[in-house]
Amino acid sequence: MNFYQQSPEDVLSSLNTTDKGLTSEEVKKKQEEHGYNELEQKDRQSLFSLFIDSFKDPMVIVLLIVAIIQIVLGETIESIIILTVLIINSILSVVQTRKAEDSLASLRDMAAPSATVVRNNSTQSVPSKEIVAGDIVILEAGNNVPADGRLLEAESLQVEEGALTGESVPSDKEAIMISEETALADRKNMVYSGTLVTYGRARYVVTGIGKETEMGKVAELIQNVSAKQTPLQRKLESFSKKLGFVILGLSVLIFAIQAFRIFTGEGPEDLQIELLNAFMFAIAVAVAAIPEALQSIVTIVLSVGTNKMAKKHAIIRKLPAVETLGSTGVICTDKTGTLTQNKMTVVQAYLPEHKQELYSSEPTDWSFGENRLNQIAVLANDSSLNEEGEASGDPTEVALINYSNKIGLPFSDLRNKFPRIEELPFDSSRKLMSTLHEIDGEKLLLTKGGPDVVFKRCSKILINGEVVEMTEEYSKTLYEKNEEYSNQAYRVLAFAYRPLSKEALDLEDENDLIFVGLLAMIDPPREEVSQAIKEAAEAGIRTVMITGDHKTTARAIALDLNLFKEDDIALTGQELDALSEEELMEKLEHISVYARVTPENKIRIVQAWQNKDQITAMTGDGVNDAPALKQADIGIAMGSGTDVSKDASAMILTDDNFVSIVSAVAVGRNVYSNIKKAIAYLFSGNLGAVVAIIAALLMNWINPFTALQLLFINLVNDSIPAIALGMEKEEPHIMKQNPRDPNEGIFTGQTLQSVILRGFTIGIAVIISQALGIYYFDSPEISVAMAFTTLILSRTLQVFPARSNTQTSLQAGFFSNKYVVGAFAVCMTLYGITMLPFIRPIFDIPSTFGLTEWSIAAGLALATTIILELKKLVFPSKLAD
Fold first, then answer.
1. What Rg do the C-alpha atoms of the chain give, in angstroms?
2. Coil, strand, or helix at residue 426?
3. What are the Cα distances from residue 220, in Å, to 33, 217, 228?
């Protein structure tokens, strides 16, 4: 049996303690057996280990092999360049990993630094880490709860448990018996580590410390949840493995063909030199095929996306999250503060004189009942607002004074005019609060509280300014109205008063009251959220509400936002627990609302959607959200949330607004599209180089490129345009398409077609250029220079057709992406440097390579761009890939 279902006596007995606390010897013995009241943390991976892990990528391994071989062969310049790039990529990877979550450290920070306990039959303050099960702890307003426990005594106790339960208002606590099984948020006789006492005082016996607390269970969940690779990471990893094997196989095959020719020919003059040339030919293929700067370019493009998202109130903590957002198919969102304003607001007023709308006239025109209702709401109230408008106090009480301000009667004026004489503070057992004031020369007791309680205390009712007896008919009407409001998920308070001549109050004075009216409040939906949910639906994204609030409230908000459809289902956490995995998977797509959920429930919901191959985003702000945030493909924390939720997340919303998520998804889709454009741009150029090299091999020509030429193109010339493509604006209809399939490869559809078309177009142009150098100019050296020029100019010019698979550069706006124009200018300048007389020998460009040869090569390069752009006009595509 759970502690919350046991009597205080049984709990004390099971923990071998008494209500007078433990002795020092008992505490020491328990600490030796069970340890301290703190959370454990696993050791982090060392920097060196992270650095080594970054070299496990298959393409990186191939490049390492190439670099080592070139060092052995004395080709130091090429090897130094390759190793430099690999080291830079590794450093970037380590830096990003070190910025990952540190959730358990944040959980430790939330623990209370000290606590008041009863030991050795006396009250003393001890560090919270030294608390053990069986300790008797004393709580007062403002205290952090240091460990989980069962209440022994509680006076007007209210505890802010939102971080654990998701509740938007403090929970009332009582030292009562609970026999049935209940959700954590409904265990009124328990308090939990990491929560905050906002009102009252209590004594409780500690039932759980460290990892045994609810906070500790959350920490364990965080540790056990494995980090998810993003779709792009999975695709790049898979593609890298395949490409690595293909490149190695192709290089070996090319070397084998060359070696066969050498040994079966007329007999080489120098076998060693010929074999070395053949080997360098094979290495050139590997260098040509591998996009050395790919990882760096992807990182830079993702970083550009983070800047765009920051302007839309979304701070990215982990770069891959930018791309993941673009493939999101399901958003599991919290209610309070994300879909709603996180600000309790009065939305309905009821007076027995049948005035049921909110006050619409000036205060001077109010009826007696309206005036009296507002007086009670403001005066029997402990909340306040400072000069900056910042509120302090219970959210429902803050709503009442905000309402008074809104309808034209500043709450401070009322309180100054009618000061409080005496009070009966709110008590969770009474569910009432009363204050004594002198109003219009008469002392009045003003009372507010739960409707059911107030109704029973009222013997009279105020009708049209007159006090009359409370009849059964009136009473029935009040109960019906309260039920009507409750069904609409409103939080309802009832207001009453009575004349009272004495000044010393007692609880008996809260009887024989005169009923005045009801005020109904709700945390209203954000006005812009409904449209954002509609936009998400048009983009094929399902929105699901997961909240710690009551099911009735959650469903009402979901209906208001059009999130809950006719055939949809709302479940509580307990109802979810009752479902088998098969039943959950069958009903999953019809469940739009989950209420009263636990951290385990949230993880299960996220995993269920992931099992349906849906990229799932999860929002949250509390400690209870952290495990699910980590489990999700992308965890989204609120800027106003706990450090734990932020540390477990991949993205933080600075405005806590659902609308910002949808805006970020649009940016994410565009970023992914641009990454694919950059990757396609790189591989198109590399494919063109490989096609030209294979053609030269088949034709038994000289190798058209040196390894240094290819490295210069791949690392310097191609990198700048690829980054510029990452700045491209959104393609048309990007938010009118369904999320892409997470299992879809990088090169599919139009992307694959464009890579093949561009690659072979460039390759053919280079082949023609080399052929002219060999047969027309009769110079192998000129042929290499022409092949190099055609390749570098073709790859530079193809940045323009690479901007879109559906539009030409003119249709997209030639100067709409100024970075592409700038990148082209920079690349042409860099190419011009290779033509300088003292630089030419480094790139094997002979001095006889002049304007005629250059013009032919440049003309062929320009022709490739024209062909690729004309293809879009002749064979247009409807949507971007």
1. 36
2. strand
3. 20, 5, 17
Q: 3-class SS at 599? A: helix
Contacts of 766 (CB under 8 A, 6+ apart): 688, 689, 691, 692, 704, 787, 790, 791, 794, 860
Tell me the pLDDT band of 866, cut-offs 50, 70 and 90. Answer: very high
User: Band of the pLDDT at 589, cuts 50, 70, 90?
Assistant: very high
Please state the rounded mean pLDDT for residues 134-147: 88
Tokens, residue 163: 């971080």
Strand 651-653 and strand 634-638: pairing?
parallel
The SS3 call for residue 830 is helix
In which element (H, E) is residue 52 found?
A: helix 47-53
Element at 691 (helix H, strand E): helix 658-699
Query: Residue 850 pLDDT > 60, yes or no?
Result: yes
The DSSP symbol for 180 reads S
Question: Which of 177-191, 279-293, 783-797 is predicted with the least confidence, judged by mean pLDDT?
Answer: 279-293
**330 or 393, higher pLDDT:** 330
What are the phi and psi torsion angles at 362 (to 5°)?
Answer: -70, 150
Q: Which two tokens stand for residue 403?
A: 């309402």
d(CA 378, CA 258): 93
Q: Where do the H-state alpha helices sit in 549-592?
A: 551-560, 573-577, 581-587
Please calculate the CA angle 525-527-531 and round it to the nearest 5 degrees. 105
Which residues are catalytic, by number?
A: 334
Tens of pLDDT, residue by residue over 84-123, are 766 766 776 566 455 433 433 444 444 446 789 999 888 8
Spatial distance between the Cα atoms of 380 and 169, rounded to a whole number of angstroms: 19
Residues in the chain: 881
- Distance, C-alpha 35 to centroid of its chain: 35
Q: What confidence tens digit (pLDDT) does each residue in 489-503 have?
A: 788 999 999 999 887
- Alpha helices, H only, 407-502: 411-417, 451-457, 472-487
Q: For residue 556, give both structure tokens.
A: 């009402």
Cα distance between residue 482 and residue 494, in whole Å: 9
Q: Tell me the backbone φ, ψ of residue 548, rounded to 5 degrees.
A: -90, 0
What's the CA gap between 784 and 774, in Å, rounded?
9
The structure's pTM equals 0.66
The closest alpha carbon to 290, from 80, 54, 64, belongs to: 64
C-alpha closest to that of 419 among 405, 403, 435, 433:
435
Calculate what percentage of the chain has a pLDDT beyond 70.
Answer: 84
Tokens of 384: 């306040």
How many helices and strands (H and E) does the chain possess?
A: 32, 25
Largest CA distance in the chain: 126
Instruction: Identify whether the C-beta of residue 386 lies closer than 8 Å to the C-beta of residue 411.
Output: no
Tokens read off for 37: 């009241």
What count of other Cβ atoms lies within 10 Å of the Cβ of residue 583? 11
Contact 590, 567 (CB under 8 A): yes
Strands 171-173, 136-140: pairing is: unpaired
Cα separation, 600 vs 740, whole angstroms: 29
Residue type, 394: D
- With 70 as the cut, is the pLDDT of residue 237 above it? no
**Which residue from 344, 299, 352 is spatially nearest to 726, judged by alpha carbons?**
299
How far is Cα 339 from Cα 325, in angstroms, rounded to an integer?
A: 19
- Cα pseudo-dihedral 229, 235, 238, 239, rounded to 10: -150
How high is the pLDDT of residue 416?
94
Tally the C-alpha atoms within 13 A of residue 206's C-alpha that lie toward its C-beta: 32
**Strand pairing of 513-522 and 458-463?**
parallel
Q: How far is CA 10 from CA 16, 180, 181, 214, in A?
A: 10, 16, 17, 21
Local structure of residue 29 (DSSP, 8 states): H
- The stretch 231-245 carries a mean pLDDT of 69
pLDDT higher than 80, residue 377: yes
